[in-house]
Every structure is written in C-alpha cells, then in structure tokens.
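ok so I'm stuck.
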Amino acid sequence: QVQLVESGGGLVQAGGSLRLSCTASGSISRLNTMSWYRQAPGKQRDLVAAITSYGSANYVDSVKGRFTISRDSAKNTVYLQMNSLKPEDTAVYYCKLRTNWDYWGQGTQVTVSS
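replied:
not stuck anymore, here's the structure
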C-alpha cells in the first residue's frame, strides 16, 4: 500500500513564497515520476511540475522561473518551492507518484492574497 502525505500549504501574500513537501511510503519502485498538480475551485486538476527518478524536470509555462521541483529519492520525498506567488496560484495542490500505477496525496491548500 503506497501512501502520499503532503505538507507546507498555507496563506501567503502575493509575491511571497511557500515550500510544499510530499513523502511517499510503502513499496515504491525506484523508477518513478513524482509530480505536483493543482486544482482551483470549479476548474480541472492540472499538472504544475514533474520530476523523474533521473532528475529530469518539466513545468507548466505559467510557473516557469517561479517554481522549482526537486526530490530526495532516498527519502521518497518531492518538494515544490514556490516563489513570487500570484493570486492565480491559489488552489489545492496534489502530489502524484507514478510507477505502474498512479497514487495521489490528499492535497494541501495554497491561498495567495492580493
């Protein structure tokens, strides 16, 4: 049984920073991709950033230059450093682990006030 636990969300003013963490536990293949998604009220869940077990990362255009995804594979943990936050970044952020299956965390709320 694989479980993902996210932390680090909260309320921040525009221009501020937050760092999200997601730790996976259970039987996890070394070859995997960890990702962050977000879902704003009334909208679909969209990919924000992803990083492979080799360290290759990709980002949605709207966060390039502001967000950085990283991972500590020894700890099965992925991070999302979010800088220069904007009100439009407000959403519930979800962590996903992809191996042979997709596993999701419970989500953490990020609210950016103007």
